[in-house]
Specification:
This protein is mainly α. Helix content is 88%, strand content 0%. The protein has one domain. The chain has three helices and no strands. The protein is elongated.
Protein backbone atom coordinates (compact mmCIF):
# COMPACT_ATOMS: atom_id res chain seq x y z
CA UNK A 1 0.00 0.00 0.00
CA UNK A 2 2.85 2.35 0.83
CA UNK A 3 4.47 1.79 -2.55
CA UNK A 4 1.19 2.28 -4.38
CA UNK A 5 0.46 5.49 -2.53
CA UNK A 6 3.87 6.87 -3.41
CA UNK A 7 3.36 5.99 -7.06
CA UNK A 8 -0.06 7.64 -7.12
CA UNK A 9 1.28 10.84 -5.58
CA UNK A 10 4.25 10.87 -7.94
CA UNK A 11 2.00 10.29 -10.95
CA UNK A 12 -0.28 13.17 -9.97
CA UNK A 13 2.66 15.48 -9.33
CA UNK A 14 4.25 14.55 -12.63
CA UNK A 15 1.02 15.15 -14.51
CA UNK A 16 0.53 18.53 -12.88
CA UNK A 17 4.18 19.45 -13.18
CA UNK A 18 4.45 18.36 -16.81
CA UNK A 19 1.01 18.48 -18.44
CA UNK A 20 2.62 18.23 -21.87
CA UNK A 21 4.57 15.18 -20.70
CA UNK A 22 1.77 12.63 -20.73
CA UNK A 23 -1.53 13.91 -19.33
CA UNK A 24 -4.49 13.66 -21.69
CA UNK A 25 -6.99 15.35 -19.39
CA UNK A 26 -4.44 17.76 -17.98
CA UNK A 27 -3.07 18.58 -21.42
CA UNK A 28 -6.52 19.54 -22.69
CA UNK A 29 -6.99 21.82 -19.72
CA UNK A 30 -3.50 23.26 -19.86
CA UNK A 31 -3.58 23.64 -23.64
CA UNK A 32 -6.23 26.40 -23.77
CA UNK A 33 -5.00 27.94 -20.53
CA UNK A 34 -1.47 28.30 -21.84
Amino acid sequence: MDGNHSKSAKAEGSLTATPTGGAGTKVGLSDPVV
